[in-house]
Every structure is written in structure tokens, then in C-alpha cells.
UniProtKB/TrEMBL annotation, chain A:
Superkingdom of this protein's organism: Bacteria
Family, similarity comment: Belongs to the binding-protein-dependent transport system permease family.
Protein name, as recorded: Ectoine/hydroxyectoine ABC transporter permease subunit EhuD
Localization terms from the record: Cell membrane
Transmembrane feature ranges: 20-43, 55-78, 190-208
Primary location class: membrane
Sorted UniProt keywords: Amino-acid transport, Cell membrane, Membrane, Transmembrane, Transmembrane helix, Transport
Species name: Prauserella endophytica
UniProtKB/TrEMBL annotation, chain B:
Sequence ranges assigned to domain ABC transmembrane type-1 in this UniProt record: 13-205
UniProt similarity note: Belongs to the binding-protein-dependent transport system permease family.
Transmembrane segments: 12-34, 55-76, 82-101, 180-204
NCBIfam families tied to this protein: ectoine_ehuC, HEQRo_perm_3TM
Membrane topology of this protein: Multi-pass membrane protein
Source organism per UniProt: Prauserella endophytica
One of the Pfam families matching this protein, by short name: BPD_transp_1
Residues in coiled coil: none
Protein name as annotated: Ectoine/hydroxyectoine ABC transporter permease subunit EhuC
Compartments in which it is found: Cell membrane
InterPro entries (alphabetical): AA_ABC_transptr_permease_3TM, ArtM/GltK/GlnP/TcyL/YhdX-like, Ectoine_EhuC, MetI-like, MetI-like_sf
Gene name for this UniProt entry: ehuC
Major localization listed first in the record, in broad terms: membrane
Keywords, alphabetical: Amino-acid transport, Cell membrane, Membrane, Transmembrane, Transmembrane helix, Transport
Keyword NAD: no
Length: 218, 228
């Protein structure tokens, strides 16, 4: 089977729509993961009774089970159980965000633990209010150091988005699948989808490595 | 559940374990070749190893699976689906684990290598008797993470119609409508398998450390890798 340039170019508009969806999923999912991960890390650091233990178990459980099954469980089990019906896209964003929040929470935790104890003590000695200690002292020092690790997880999320085709999200791989199903030619759309992932994730990983050299790693 | 459905569960579980274990072994081979290749003195060896790790870390494993299952047959070859699954997962996880190998080899103190050179060890003896025994101990904790990632990634093969645990569960869900039971059991099942593999890796880590006269802190979750 030969490479057909004309067909490859014809399938581009369809793929472009999928590319847009993939990028939206990654960006929105990543934002959720950044925020939720920080919340998890702070709950565990502050040691909120019961909630803290619950977050620990939740993080361990989510991290050791496949995202695909969590997506299925959320879509087919949890949503009907609580009586809501979210679109596949929104389901994807939420599950990507929650799944990766368990990873980013570990990253934040390491970043927070890397702050010397003296900083906490000095903040208390100056009787800075508790909230202000986080926003004014701890986080401004911890967050820059965790940026490379967050970047790495964002790339991982980007590469996990195609599994959402299982619940019908039309991402770039699913677009390729559809293009292939119409014409029975699969080489061109799948190859283009693969090239797209490589074209985004390789430069992104180079950027993360540059950032790593500048701010160091946790 | 009837025995007919249970046989699906066993088949799926068997295939999931098969994919994980053989994916890990093949991935380990790729990881050592590429990881040691990246520490080579020859530029072309370093180059090939780098191209491998960069390309396969850049691809989603699902895209790789689709390529092996749906594109390769158009060239007239039909891979055994289970083998295609193992190969796709191994190529992907091997690229990640290659970075672990490289890092661990780099972390061996230079004095050790200088001492081996001073003792007139051949490069092969240096690698086998001095560098690797120390590096392997450092590799095991991050390898544990890689292994769990691999186990989780095996669920993707259900999307290309390979009958792993997830695929069997979907069949059972379709035929019985027991959505809650099936997904809950599936999540717990993967969690238990992950725990099982973590325990084995912890045992390996202790054995490797003991051979160097070191000890490892007890407990399953004693250490945690953070960076991706």
C-alpha cells in the first residue's frame, strides 16, 4: 500500500478538528490538575483530620488504576448514579484533571517539603496570618521549582487524551479513525495523527528540559 | 455469575498479566540497550539510542497500538494481536525506562569507574562487575513506577479488541448489565495487581541492596518517585 499525498491532504481538515479537541482537552484537564493537585497537597500538609487520610487513600487508589477504567466508571456508573449527564468531552476533561491531580499533588508535596523549616518558623515568628504564609512565603518559593515536573505531566496528559475515544470523544486519533473508516485507507490519517503528537510533545519536552536547567528539579 | 462468564474473567486476567510481564521484560531489554547506548562513547550509538527514546516517549501508546494493529496489516503482515500489544507497550515503556537506566549509570560515582580502570578491568568487566551492580539498585524504585504505568497502559489494548481484563469486563457488562459490580471489581482488581507487583519489586530491591551490603527501609510505600 503506497502513501497517497492527495488523500493525506484531503483528510487534513477532519484531523484539524480533532487536533483542536485534543488541545482543548489537554489545556482544560491540565488547569484542573494544577489546581486540584495543589488543593490535595495542601490538605495533606495541613493535616485536616479525616479529609487528609481520605485524600491519601484516594491518591494511592487513582494512581494505581488505569485512567481508561476510571473514565468508564465515571461515565457509565457514577454519572447515572448521581443523576447527571455530562458530555463525553466534559467527562474527559474532569477525569484527566482528577487523574493527573493525584500526580501533581505528589509534585507539589515534594516542592513544599523542599522549603526549609526556617521559612515556616520565620513566618510564624513574624505572626503572618496562616493564609498569607501560603500565598506570600511558601508557594512563591515552591511553585517555580515544581514547574518542570508539572510540564512533564502535562505532556503525559496530552498523550493520554486519545483513550477518550472509548467514550466517543472525537479527538485527533478518533478523527483519523473516522477518516479511515470512510475510505478504508488508514495509513495516511493514522500517520498524520502520530506525527502531530510527535510534533507537539518533542518540542514541549525540550522546553521542559530547558526550564529544568534554569530552576532545577524538586 | 455463571461459570461461562467467569472463564472470560480468567482469560482476561491471564492476558493482562501476560501483557504486563512480557511487556516489562521486552521493555527492559529495550531500556538497557537504549540506556547504555546513550552512555556510549560512539556518537552514532548515542544518536540511535536518542532517536529511539525521543520518538517513543513522544508517541501515545494508543497511537502505537493502532499503528501495529491497523496499519501493519495493510502491508500484508498480520501480527499476533497479543504480540502486537506487548511490542507496542514495550517500545513505549522501554523508552521511559531507558532514561532511568541512563540516570542510574550516570549516578555511579566516577571514582568507582576510575578504580576499575586502574585495576585493568576490561570495559565489559567494568560494566558488569562495578557499574551495573550499583546502578541496578538505584533503578529498581523508578522501575516500579514504570511497571505500574505499564500495567495501567495494558487496559488500552481493549480498545483494539484484545481480550484483556478490561475487554472481558466490558463483555460481561454488556451481557449482564451489572455496571456497578463490573467497574468496581475492575478498579479493585487493577489496584490489587498493582499492589502485588509493587510487593515483588520491593523484594527485588531488598535483594539487590543486600548484595551490596545496604539495607532498604521497610514498608511498601517507603519511597516515592516524583518527577515524571
Amino acid at each position: 500500500m503506497d502513501w497517497d499525498w492527495e488523500y493525506a491532504i484531503d483528510s487534513l481538515p477532519l484531523l484539524a478538528e480533532g487536533i483542536l479537541v485534543t488541545i482543548e482537552l489537554t489545556v482544560l484537564g491540565a488547569l484542573l490538575a494544577y489546581v486540584l493537585g495543589l488543593v490535595f497537597a495542601m490538605i495533606r500538609r495541613v493535616g485536616v483530620p479525616v479529609l487528609s487520610q481520605f485524600v491519601y487513600l484516594f491518591v494511592e487508589f487513582i494512581r494505581s488504576t488505569p485512567l481508561l477504567i476510571q473514565v468508564f466508571a465515571f461515565y457509565y456508573l457514577l454519572q447515572p448514579a448521581i443523576g447527571v449527564k455530562l458530555s463525553p468531552f466534559l467527562t474527559g476533561v474532569i477525569m484527566l484533571g482528577v487523574h493527573y491531580a493525584t500526580y501533581t499533588s505528589e509534585v507539589y508535596r515534594a516542592g513544599i517539603e523542599a522549603i526549609p523549616k526556617g521559612q515556616w518558623e520565620a513566618a510564624r515568628a513574624l505572626s503572618i496570618p496562616r493564609g498569607r504564609v501560603w500565598t506570600g512565603v511558601i508557594l512563591p518559593q515552591a511553585v517555580p521549582r515544581v514547574l518542570p515536573a508539572l510540564g512533564n505531566y502535562t505532556i503525559s496528559m496530552f498523550k493520554e487524551t486519545p483513550l477518550l475515544l472509548a467514550i466517543g470523544v472525537v479527538d485527533v486519533l478518533n478523527s483519523a479513525k473516522e477518516a479511515g473508516a470512510e475510505t478504508f485507507r488508514v495509513i495516511e490519517p493514522y500517520t498524520l495523527a502520530g506525527v502531530f503528537f510527535l510534533l507537539v510533545s518533542y518540542p514541549a519536552s525540550i522546553l521542559v528540559r530547558k526550564l529544568e536547567r534554569r530552576v532545577g528539579t524538586v | 455469575m455463571s461459570s461461562g462468564l467467569m472463564s472470560y474473567v480468567w482469560e482476561g486476567l491471564g492476558n493482562t498479566l501476560l501483557l504486563t510481564v512480557f511487556g516489562a521484560l521486552l521493555g527492559l531489554v529495550f531500556a538497557f540497550i537504549a540506556g547504555l547506548g546513550r552512555s556510549s562513547e560512539r556518537t552514532w550509538v548515542r544518536g540511535i539510542a536518542m532517536v529511539y527514546t525521543e520518538i517513543f516517549r513522544g508517541f501515545p501508546s494508543l497511537v502505537l497500538l493502532f499503528a501495529l494493529i491497523f496499519i501493519v496489516p495493510t502491508f500484508g503482515y498480520q501480527l499476533n494481536p497479543l504480540f502486537a500489544g506487548i511490542l507496542a507497550l514495550a517500545l513505549n515503556i522501554g523508552a521511559y525506562a531507558a532514561e532511568v537506566v541512563r540516570g542510574a549509570v550516570k549516578a555511579v560515582p566516577p571514582g568507582q569507574i576510575e578504580a576499575a580502570i586502574a585495576l585493568n578491568f576490561t570495559p565489559w568487566q567494568r560494566l558488569r562487575k562495578v557499574v551495573l551492580p550499583q546502578a541496578v539498585v538505584a533503578m529498581i524504585p523508578p522501575f516500579t513506577n514504570n511497571l505500574i504505568e505499564l500495567l495501567k497502559a495494558t487496559s488500552l489494548v481493549s480498545l483494539v479488541y484484545i481480550s484483556d481484563l478490561t475487554f472481558s469486563a466490558q463483555l460481561i457488562r454488556a451481557s449482564t448489565g451489572e455496571t456497578a459490580l463490573v467497574f468496581f471489581g475492575l478498579l479493585v482488581g487493577y489496584g490489587v495487581i498493582a499492589l502485588f507487583f509493587t510487593a515483588i519489586m520491593k523484594l527485588l530491591e531488598r535483594m539487590a541492596a543486600r548484595s551490596l551490603g545496604r539495607t532498604v527501609p521497610s514498608g511498601l510505600f517507603g519511597r516515592k518517585e516524583v518527577a515524571a
